[in-house]
Amino acid sequence: MAEVILRDYQLLPIISRFGIKLGFGNKSIEEICTDRNVDLPFFLEILNSYHSIDYFPKNHLCDFNADVMVSYLTNTHSYYLNSKVPHIELFIDRMDQAAQFENSRNVALLKQFFNEYKIDIEHHFSEEEKNVFPYILALEKALKSNNCSPQLLKKIKREPIEIYERNHESLEVKLADMKNLIIRFLPPLNCEDDCEHLLTELFQLECDIEDHTRMEEKVLIPKVKMLERKVLEYYGV
User: Whole-model pTM?
Assistant: First the structure.
């Protein structure tokens, strides 16, 4: 496992989303996944997907149980909200405190932009965790237990995943606006280091969100459509 991080340090937060922390000595990936009760094939596919943008075996990922995918995506939400967002807010607050008069309005606007983005991303994740993820798990449970409630069948017909897919707005637009505000319109600052760190964090968050969205749109949603179809076929609806 240590070799993985030494080859690509950007995989470190991905690994932590599986509950794997530093201090694993010379253990292999298989040994660590066994210790942490992590699905090894899924773990490897996720690492490969993040390591190389051209590597995205959606056909393989669709073979994994929905609960494994939902658990990973839920942990990813927690990482964004509890780690990335507060870290970015820290740099913005430091810039706000150090802003010169001619920059104060622009930094305040930047802060407002990010607050709006934070509200959007919290709402997006909340909708997924309260409505979408339980629905996905219910579909898989219905197939495994050969027991599907009438309510679930009605939901498949009235609110299939494609409705969510149509409303799956991109989270990248506000990030792009913020980056443009900083790069194009923010006058020279007396806190250049914080500004550069902030930009780096925004670029990294944008890339990570793109991968997260790609996982949902290219893997999770097709997986759910397949489950919906199987449930309807099995129960003759």
Answer: 0.83
